[in-house]
Every structure is written in structure tokens, then in C-alpha cells.
């Protein structure tokens, strides 16, 4: 499945807002098209957002070939600023922009350096996903009942995936699993995307309403909850799709292990705790309407949080390409990052 690619100076993306009903590729010829795709969640998932940001910079660089160095850098700075403004929580996006910008600024051939760094980010994310999935699959046993939230498969990473990639890898190893996928309100990434990916992989999946997760854990014998991440603080506090924190609390109550699966690129070495993570608030319209019909009175206030932050104390382990990290995360994350 080709989720995102760079062809010449065009960025091609699978429009995830149309799934599972239609598979359509968006062809972006400029930065604004990519920015809109990110803001509208046509492309989503922390690693995939990092790749999209890198490709936006590469596109600008490719279109700037032959221009004076300062002009190339100025165009890259403009792209950097526009893409950075799209999603505040996903650290991969910001880190990718900064990496490409830094490489361009440090090179005499800014355009070529930007393209090389963008492709390096793409290749690194693919390799990180492969290794992460192998480490995570080692945690899964025959007969495990796994609950997952939002979408963390190939659609979110442009390769195997993170949490969902772990599940798919374990299944391919021959392990017998039961998988429950939260619908993930309000945009239903679990019902639309996770279920679609699992069905395509031939893995039985049961979609449940978000509010039923606790009762499903109690009555269906859930053994593990595995989710992704959009930003991880150096103490292990983790930001992920809204509803994740509730699952972590419920997992502890019901004796289920709770794992985060994310590449090290999702760790933000610049923040010590989850209190420093900015939590994106999205438009009230996402909650006010369903299928074009108003379901919330206009006079009501609406708080549409895209993410929440799960304290490290609720996390059994963090699955990364460097292995499964365990508490205390202040130590294991620093070792894995080499800082």
C-alpha cells in the first residue's frame, strides 16, 4: 500500500478521509495542498506526518533548483513555517522540518541537501517501523486479546505501522489473536481505517464503541492494550489520540498490559514531562455535525480535543526500534536516544 510518495516534484498521498469507501490518491503540486491535506487529516499519523513534512520541504527544494542559495533558503523557510502551523502536537512533523532546514542551511547546495535529508527521513521511518514491529511482536502470545485505539498501521506510517504493525507482524508469525478496535470518535479512524487495514490483512477484528472499552475489557478478557503516540516526553508521558488516557486507566483496573508503540523519532528530547506537550484543539464542527446533520445545539459549548496525555505510570512499556523500553523511562529513553 503506497500511502505517500515523492515523484519528481509531486507529493502523492492516499486520501484517508475517503476510506474505506474509496481509495483515491491526491496529487499535491505545492505546499498549500500538502498543508491542507495535513490539516484535514487526509494524511495523518505521527510518522506519516513527519514524512509529509519532509516531502513538502523536498518539493520546495526541487522546484527551487538553479535559484540563488539565499532564495532557496527563503523558500524553504516559508514552507517550514506553513507546514509547522498545521498540527501542534505531532513532534515528528516539527522534527522533520527542522532536520531538512538545518541540512539545507549547512550546505552550499541547499536544494540538493534538503532533498537528500527528506529521503533519509523517509528511509529511516521505514526501517524503524520494521524493527519496532519485530520487537513488539515478541511480546504477543498465542491467545492474546488485544484492544487498540485510533489508527497506527501502514496508513499512519507509510510502511508496516506501529501498534497495528505489531499486531499484523504477530499474526503473520502464526499467533492466534483476537483484536478489538475502538471506533475512535469523532472522525472514526478506528472504525474506518484500522478495521479496513486488518480486514485487508485477513485478521479478524471487532469494532466497538469508544464508551464500551471498559466493559469489553471486563467481559472479553482483554490481555493487552497497544496504541501509538504523537509525542513522548522524556519521563515517558505520552500524547496520543483522545481517549487513550481513559484506556490506560481502564487497563490498570482490569489487569491488562498497556503498551505504547512508537519510533524514537516520536520522543521529544526537549521536554521533560507531558505537562509541556501542546494539546491540539480542533474545530467544533467535527462534534457538532454527523453526516451533515447537526447533533449539538448551537448554544452549547464544544471542547474538541484531538489528543490527551497518558502519565508514564500507566504505561507497561514503550515499543521502539531500539527494543521495548521499561520504567524508569527517564533512564531507558535517554539510553535509547543516546542523550
Give a verbal description of the structure.
- The chain is of the alpha/beta class.
- The protein folds into two domains: 4-130, Up-down Bundle (Four Helix Bundle (Hemerythrin (Met), subunit A)), CATH 1.20.120.420; 138-337, 3-Layer(aba) Sandwich (Rossmann fold).
- 42% of the residues lie in helices and 17% in strands.
- A seven-stranded mixed sheet has the order 6-5-4-7-10-14-15, sandwiched between helices. It has a three-stranded antiparallel sheet with strand order 1-2-3, with helices on one face.
- α2 runs parallel beside α4 (91-105) and α5 (110-137) crosses α7.
- It is globular and about 65 Å long.
Short description:
The chain has 339 residues and is an alpha/beta fold. It contains twelve helices and 15 strands.
Largest β-sheet summary: 7 strands, mixed
Cα radius of gyration in angstroms? 20 Å
The helix/strand order is EEEHHHHHEHHEHEHEEEHEHEEEEEH
Helix content: 40-55%
| Class by SSE composition | alpha/beta
Number of helices: 12
CATH names the topology of the largest domain as Rossmann fold
CATH class of the largest domain: Alpha Beta
Terminal CA distance reads 35 Å
Q: How many strand elements?
A: 15
Overall pLDDT confidence: 97
The largest beta-sheet arranges its strands as 6-5-4-7-10-14-15
What is the CATH superfamily label of the largest domain?
Translation initiation factor eif-2b, domain 2
**Total tally of structural domains:** 2
Q: Strand share of the residues?
A: 15-25%
Which parts are unreliable, with pLDDT below 50 for 5 consecutive residues or more?
none
Shape: globular
Instruction: Give the name of the CATH architecture of the largest domain.
Output: 3-Layer(aba) Sandwich
